[in-house]
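Deliverable D2.4 — example input (structure tokens):
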């Protein structure tokens, strides 16, 4: 009987020792997690700042919360459509995302503006299909006619119902 107790006690002592070691190693893991979390946050902050500078967002604002909001919308690998879009168009897209006055449709407008630019630059729009295109949530939906503009905007708030040929107005100062 004492042999059984001795075996039981030594097994019990081993389990306690193992649990103590596990506890100690889990404490280390918690410290590592805390450290990695801090490093991760630091990396994300650096990434957001590099993102803002790369896209020129720092020319619009120095507000890092606005940079982060656009970063969360666009993702770290986002780049402006090529060839580079005009600064005013970029600012409009940025404002759609960060300005609360555009809620709840701002992000959709931003996606639609980006898709419109992409479609214009792709030279794939077919004028024989219609004079306008409908873009909803960043996706080309269909061709249409200018007479449908009011109806489309009422039916699909946040949509882009725009001409297939961009109208550029040049202002001259005399």
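Example output (designed residues):
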């Amino acid at each position: 009987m004492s042999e059984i107790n001795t075996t039981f006690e030594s097994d019990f002592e081993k389990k306690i020792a193992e649990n103590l070691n596990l506890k100690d190693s889990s404490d280390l893991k918690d410290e590592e997690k805390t450290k990695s979390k801090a490093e991760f946050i630091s990396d994300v902050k650096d990434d957001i700042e590099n993102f803002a500078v790369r896209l020129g967002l720092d020319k619009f604002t120095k507000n890092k919360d606005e940079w982060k909001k656009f970063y969360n919308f666009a993702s770290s690998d986002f780049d402006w459509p090529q060839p580079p879009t005009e600064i005013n168009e970029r600012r409009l897209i940025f404002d759609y995302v960060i300005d609360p006055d555009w809620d709840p449709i701002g992000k959709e407008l931003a996606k639609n503006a980006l898709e419109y630019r992409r479609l214009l630059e792709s030279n794939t729009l077919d004028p024989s299909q219609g004079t306008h295109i409908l873009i909803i949530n960043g996706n080309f939906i269909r061709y249409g006619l200018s007479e449908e503009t009011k109806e489309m905007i009422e039916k699909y708030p946040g949509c882009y119902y725009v001409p297939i040929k961009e109208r550029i107005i040049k202002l001259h100062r005399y």
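The helical segments are 2-55, 64-74, 87-98, 106-122, 149-155.
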